[in-house]
TrEMBL record:
Top-level division of the source organism's lineage: Eukaryota
Organism classification: Eukaryota, Metazoa, Chordata, Craniata, Vertebrata
Entry function: Functions as an ammonia transporter. May play a role in the elimination of ammonia in the gill.
UniProt source species: Muraenolepis orangiensis (Patagonian moray cod)
Sequence ranges assigned to domain Ammonium transporter AmtB-like in this UniProt record: 24-434
Residues passing through the membrane, by range: 12-33, 59-78, 87-107, 119-141, 148-167, 179-197, 217-236, 248-269, 281-298, 304-321, 342-360, 406-431
Entry protein name: Ammonium transporter AmtB-like domain-containing protein
Length: 474
């Protein structure tokens, strides 16, 4: 009997088996332990509590909870696509993290032809995974799991190469990943959904709706992301006061965007009622908006202001910009990632540039050259010797001025957006291949297409005439 074009019976097992064989072979050849995990490098003088495990593992677990539980619950807001949102998030995240360990390791952590694996490598891989999951939000419910895996397969190398180029040649400050994570993920996802445009979905879809229970589950995801976001923004900051500031600023930014979300939701909705979509998404905007400046001396008031501005921009984006993008620019952004990650990422990047221009020794003291490592004097500069008397072990930098560093931030912003859009568009053309089992319009946002649904699965709502014709082309 011939399989349905969307059937996973052959395609998914073949992809998983082949990809896992390739990944395990690459791990066997190229991956070994780093110094903190290699038993051969431990001796009588080794102090077990000095192992990086005890500083990195709390961040690792926090980010794991965000990716697998927070993102998973958040994406389960559609009434008849709860399985797809949560389970495909699980599937895609697991594959993307495995793949990113290898790809990022090749670009950043390879020494003598080997990738020396430690917790910090896995944390970096989880950031790459977060990039894929943010992009996933733009095509939620409109793609098969095989398409999502192929998207992860293609997006991770583009992201890793972009990250490597920016960090190696432009050398920017981006503690919370506003440029390299949020903006890249957003515009890559928009590039994909632009190519996968479905005209009939612009007219509405009977299954494109949330329910009481699905909204409650999505709100749980929001709360989990909210609670753990300070770890996401601070994990790559310098230990000590920089990391401390990143936690404080992220909390203040999230607090401000949350209150802004409630105020604007009541003000912009008829009858002054709150909308769960606003609570689920806009409340998180502050975490992104403070990202680029999280470890800088922007003041608590500055962090709060950024959170409020980010919340307002995100809210207005959902209300007015998303419908415009769908109608006029063929960008059907299912989860509004342009509002939560794109607009707020741009605001954060501009705030970071302003903070870099304003940074001075009067505000930071000698630690200016630790927070902004590339502004430290070059090796041999007498000022470097003077600074090392105050900060022993201070590394030589590039001697950049504040203006030069700001210009490199601008260059990184433009480069990242351009590469992500191009990468997303090209990936979208690959995802249009018929063999990847894209769901037809009338079966989008429906778990019944890919899952054995339980007996109490909510019966599909009657379809409007807009999506009753089988049209698998996207």
């Amino acid at each position: 009997m011939k399989e349905h074009p969307t059937s996973l019976r052959v395609k998914l097992p073949v992809f998983v088996v082949v990809s896992q064989l390739v990944i395990v072979a690459l791990f066997a050849v190229f991956v070994t332990y780093d110094d903190q995990a290699d038993a051969r490098l431990q001796g009588n003088g080794t102090v077990a509590m000095d192992n990086a495990l005890y500083t990195d593992y709390p961040f690792f677990t926090d980010i794991q909870v965000m990716i697998f539980v927070g993102f998973g619950c958040l994406l389960a807001f559609l009434r008849q696509y709860g399985f797809g949102g949560m389970v495909f998030n699980f599937l895609t995240a697991t594959f993307a993290t495995q793949w990113a360990i290898l790809v990022q390791g090749y670009f950043q952590f390879s020494h003598d032809g080997q990738i020396h694996l430690g917790l910090i490598n896995v944390i970096n891989a989880e950031f790459a995974c977060a990039v894929v999951l943010i992009s996933f939000g733009a095509v939620l419910g409109k793609t098969s799991p095989l398409q999502l895996l192929v998207m992860a397969l293609l997006e991770v190398p583009v992201f890793a190469a972009t990250e490597w180029a920016v960090l190696t040649y432009l050398k920017i400050n981006d503690a919370g990943g506003s440029i390299l994570i949020h903006l890249f993920a957003c515009y890559f996802g928009l590039g994909v959904t632009f190519v996968l445009y479905r005209p009939r979905l612009n007219e509405g879809h009977a299954k494109e709706a949330s329910g009481y229970r699905s909204d409650m589950l999505s709100a749980v995801g929001t709360l989990i992301l909210w609670v753990f976001w300070p770890s996401f923004n601070s994990v790559l900051s310098l230990r000590g006061d920089d990391q401390h500031r990143a936690v404080l600023h992220t909390f203040l930014g999230l607090s401000a965007s949350t209150l802004t979300a409630f105020a604007l939701s009541a003000a912009l909705n008829k009858g002054g009622k709150l909308t769960m979509a606003d609570v689920q998404n806009v409340t998180l905007a502050g975490g992104v908006t403070v990202g680029a400046t999280a470890d800088m001396m922007i003041s608590p008031a500055g962090a709060y202001a950024l959170g409020a501005v980010g919340g307002a921009a995100c809210m207005l984006g959902y209300r007015y910009l998303s419908p415009f993008l769908a109608r006029r620019l063929r960008i059907q952004d299912q989860c509004g990632i342009h509002n939560l990650h794109g607009l707020t990422g741009l605001i954060s990047s501009v705030a970071g540039i302003c903070a870099i221009l304003a940074a001075s020794e009067e505000v930071y003291g000698p630690s200016l050259y630790e927070t902004f490592a590339h502004r430290a004097p070059v090796e041999g500069d007498p000022k470097l010797l003077e600074l090392r008397q105050q900060i022993p072990g201070l590394r030589a930098g590039l001697g950049r001025t504040a203006r030069e560093q700001a210009l490199y931030q601008v260059a990184a912003l433009v480069f990242t957006v351009v590469v992500s859009v191009i990468g997303g568009v090209l990936t979208g053309f690959v995802l249009k291949l018929p063999c990847l089992g894209s769901p037809p319009d009338e079966l989008c946002f429906d778990d019944d297409l890919f899952f054995d649904v339980p007996h109490d699965y909510e019966a599909p709502s009657p379809l409007s005439n807009k999506c009753t014709t089988d049209d698998s082309s996207v």
